[in-house]
Amino acid sequence: VQLVESGGGSVQAGGSLKLSCKVSGYIANSYCMAWFRQPPGKGREGVASIWTTDGRTNYVPSVKDRFTISQDNAKNMVYLQMNSLKPEDTGTYYCAASGCYGLRPLYRYWGQGTQVTVS
């Protein structure tokens, strides 16, 4: 299984970015995917998760109503639309997949990360 993130970059506060995660390989008949972020010098934080079977989502309160996680099962893609970005959203964003662990960093498969900088 391979996860590859893309779409990171530098934006001004209030701007938007859309992250993408391409999934290659078989994970399971039913699994979850999630986005995590790691600010500079801090631990990894769960941002959003989605159950690929029925699309149920979960968000950390700090991004609710600003970020949206979505999936395209036909393309094996998961997205994170980030609006109204704040400087505190800065960090390396990781895509993760496996059994459903919500926003806990217990996922088996991880991408290499993509940098998001908000100034």
Task: Describe the 3D structure.
- The chain is an all-beta fold.
- It is 0% helix and 50% strand.
- It has strands at residues 2-6, 9-11, 17-24, 32-38, 45-51, 57-59, 67-72, 77-82, 91-98, 109-110, 114-118.
- The strands form 2 sheets. Strands 2, 4, 5, 6, 9, 10 and 11 form a 7-stranded mixed β-sheet that branches. A 4-stranded antiparallel β-sheet has the order 1-3-8-7, with no helix packed on it.
- β5 and β6 form a beta hairpin.
- The model has no long low-confidence stretch (mean pLDDT 95).
Feature tags:
119 residues, mainly beta, 4-stranded antiparallel β-sheet, 11 strands, 0% helix
Q: Summed up, what is this model?
A:
A hairpin with a 5-residue loop joins strand 5 (45-51) and strand 6.
Strand-residue proportion: over 45%
Uncertain spans, ≥5 residues at pLDDT below 50? Answer: none
Helical residues, percent: under 10%
Q: What's the average pLDDT?
A: 95
Q: What is the string of helix and strand elements? A: EEEEEEEEEEE
Q: Work out the number of β strands.
A: 11
Summarize the main sheet: 7 strands, mixed
Distance between the termini: 34 Å
Basic shape: globular
Kindly name the structural category: mainly beta
Number of H/I helices: 0
Output the radius of gyration. Answer: 13 Å
Summarize the helices and strands and which ones pair or pack.
Elements: E1 2-6, E2 9-11, E3 17-24, E4 32-38, E5 45-51, E6 57-59, E7 67-72, E8 77-82, E9 91-98, E10 109-110, E11 114-118
Parallel strand pairs: 2-11
Antiparallel strand pairs: 1-3, 3-8, 4-5, 4-9, 5-6, 7-8, 9-10, 9-11
